[in-house]
Amino acid sequence: MDRFIVDPVEFAAQAERWIGDRIHLVLESSRRCYLMLAGGSTPLPIYQRLAMRKDIPWSRIDLFFGDERCVPVNTSENNYTMVMRSLFPDGDRPDGMNVYRMCGEENPDKAAEVYELVLPERIDILLLGVGDDGHTASIFPGSAALDEEKRRVMPAIAAKPPLQRLTITPPVIQSARYLLVMVQGEGKADAVRRALVDRSVPAAIALDGDWMMDTQAARALPEDQRLGF
């Protein structure tokens, strides 16, 4: 596990570089790359930067999602819609790229079962964010998903609207080949400390991954745990 603490101005560029480098590493030995994306606002500028790179072979990438809000597609709260608008604002997806979205607007239990069937055995690159309460994906404090060992996707209840969600579970997170947790802003500092030091919030599930934080998100960490990029 590496911990990268970067200047807020450089955060998106550093995260985009991390992702791009790992895509190329995966495709050196595999025909396709299974990339699982995080929702929320933090990664959107990163996705916009990725979309501008000419060296990303999107035709060899399969996109998956780590969680979804059970709201109609094409609304501003839908993770799939937000992400795709950031990656491909003109609406044109590259030929050969596969996108597997969670159909959160449908029956959550059925949607979770269906998504489990399309997930590969192992995700190559998994991206996660962290909420100010320490949740990651849609695994919130007290969630039944925290203790899940068999199911890979399940319905979940959030701490704030929209309440109904779908989420991957710890087995998916912990089996990923490459894992990046991306955290920005002073409002996330306590959650970062509770995840990395106290290990008392759901984001601690991702301890074995790489963590990229800006200086504000890392400010509550003990001095000996602050490593530069």
UniProtKB/TrEMBL annotation:
The keyword Hydrolase applies. Its EC number is 3.1.1.31. This is 6-phosphogluconolactonase. It is an enzyme of class 3 (hydrolase). Gene3D superfamilies: 3.40.50.1360. SUPFAM superfamilies: NagB/RpiA/CoA transferase-like (SSF100950). Keywords: Hydrolase. Pfam families: Glucosamine_iso. GO terms for biological process: carbohydrate metabolic process; pentose-phosphate shunt. Belongs to the glucosamine/galactosamine-6-phosphate isomerase family. 6-phosphogluconolactonase subfamily. The keyword Hydrolase applies. Pathway: Carbohydrate degradation; pentose phosphate pathway; D-ribulose 5-phosphate from D-glucose 6-phosphate (oxidative stage): step 2/3. InterPro entries: 6-phosphogluconolactonase_DevB (IPR005900), 6PGL (IPR039104), Glc/Gal-6P_isomerase (IPR006148), NagB/RpiA_transferase-like (IPR037171). Hydrolysis of 6-phosphogluconolactone to 6-phosphogluconate. GO terms for molecular function: 6-phosphogluconolactonase activity. Residues 7-207 form the Glucosamine/galactosamine-6-phosphate isomerase domain. It comes from the Bacteria. Coiled coil: none annotated. It catalyses: 6-phospho-D-glucono-1,5-lactone + H2O = 6-phospho-D-gluconate + H(+).
